[in-house]
Amino acid sequence: MPQFTVDDDLAALVEKLAKPKPFENLTFNAALRRVLMDLAPKGAAAGRTVVDTASVLAELDHLTFTPSKKAPSPNPAQWASKVPELRELRDVSTWAAICKALGIDTRGDSARRKLQSWVIQRNANPHNKNKWPDVPSA
What we know:
Blueprint: H1 8-18, H2 28-39, H3 42-45, H4 53-61, H5 76-80, H6 84-87, H7 95-102, H8 111-124
Helix pairs in contact: 1-2, 7-8
């Protein structure tokens, strides 16, 4: 039987969709089975512990998934390439990596927004001779 690695966010989603009762401890398999049973057609799933994968797949074909309405984040590597101090650094491909390289504590907030306010403060300091480009908005 193949084994799969499951990311934490996916496991949390399965747990949420399984709707466990208060103080109910579900294994990932039990939670996933419950979610799949909810997706199965009601007549086919009634009283069964084994899911008919063909009927579940047929049911999923009829579902329409709406794409995220969130705007994509601007490219952090492209912005970092405009800053001479950051060009030499490795792995500045994410906003969080740039913040980490600069020692900016994001504390769970958006790294891009934290960097944006940090750059504004840095550019306002008269001791900094070269101004950094503004961090792009979303």
